[in-house]
Amino acid sequence: MSGFSTVGIVGGGAWGTALAQVAARAGLEPLIWAREAEVVEAINTGQANPLFLPEVLLDAAVRATAVLTDLAAADLILVVAPAQHVRAALRRLPPSDERPLVLCAKGVERGSLKLMTEVAAETAPGAPLAVLSGPSFAGEVARGLPTAVTLACDDERLGQAIAEALATPTFRPYWARDLIGAEAGGAIKNVLAIACGVAEGRGLGRSAHAALVTRGFAELTRLAVALGGEARTVAGLCGLGDLVLTCSSPKSRNMSFGLALGRGLSVAEALGDGRAVVEGYETAPALRELAARLGVETPICEAVAAVLAGERGLDEAIGALLSRPLRTEQEDG
């Protein structure tokens, strides 16, 4: 037995709601904290979240609250707030040295350039940490379609217990020890997905798409290892698997954002009303700065950051990538 019976979910967006569905199917009692009053109302009265996850009937066990401290009584906390809001959310959550925090956001904090495990260590010192990451579209997970993810935790016994608590016949968490590799893979692939969307929107073809995914994975691996992660971790679900999914479908918010840019929309137009967070847009500038600090070449990620900052036009950025010096495939950059 896992030892968990109740789970608090910090964040009432599509992914938080989908994970609440997973928890309910696994026999847990999930309570979602959402900022939006209409989300709380819709979940509690209509078993639905039409704002972020339309056309999905939620399990009757899924409940919601507008009071973050209501989650303090849970045995397990899933932190699914957008990466740039994780610090603020954890500061408001009553501290506990026993209740595990499972970090589900994929990004690098702007300003501090810290991964979510570093943010959590500062804001919730002493709390046991785990990272959940992998190829997973919220709508598919919520509907119970087969999904496999990485559950990283340096404490094997705790990691296995969390994986057991969340596992269902269609949601399979695979335990790993490498937290840094797991979260680095999830953060970097979002920026690379924007590049793949741009290539699709510009009509550059499937060959270009394959090249971006492959060379992007090389960037992802170099940076993850420089951060302290392991290459074998990002060669799994939380790196390569997530990259393949996110770069291959407009269901990905990051790829669809890049697709809109490639078709000629401005950054503001592509972002839309901002209700659905594009993590790659937020992470790109932090990632560029982090790579420079570590001395790691990430030309694709750097090109995306330059375009989003208005420093280069799309065609100029594409031309710069194509005119880089030829080198052996195993060389950095």
Task: Give a brief outline of the structure.
This protein is of the alpha/beta class.
Q: If you had to describe this structure to a student in words, what would you say it looks like?
A:
It is a single chain. Strands 3-2-1-4-5-6-7-8 form an eight-stranded mixed beta sheet, with helices on both faces. The protein has two domains: 6-177, NAD(P)-binding Rossmann-like Domain (Rossmann fold), CATH 3.40.50.720; 180-322, N-(1-d-carboxylethyl)-l-norvaline Dehydrogenase, domain 2, CATH 1.10.1040.10. The mean pLDDT is 95. It has 333 residues and is α/β, with parallel strands linked by helices. The radius of gyration is 19 Å and the shape is globular. Helix 4 (116-123) links the parallel strand 5 (101-103) and strand 6. It starts with 5 loop residues before the first strand and ends in an 11-residue tail after the last helix. Helix content is 49%, strand content 11%. 52% of the residues are buried.
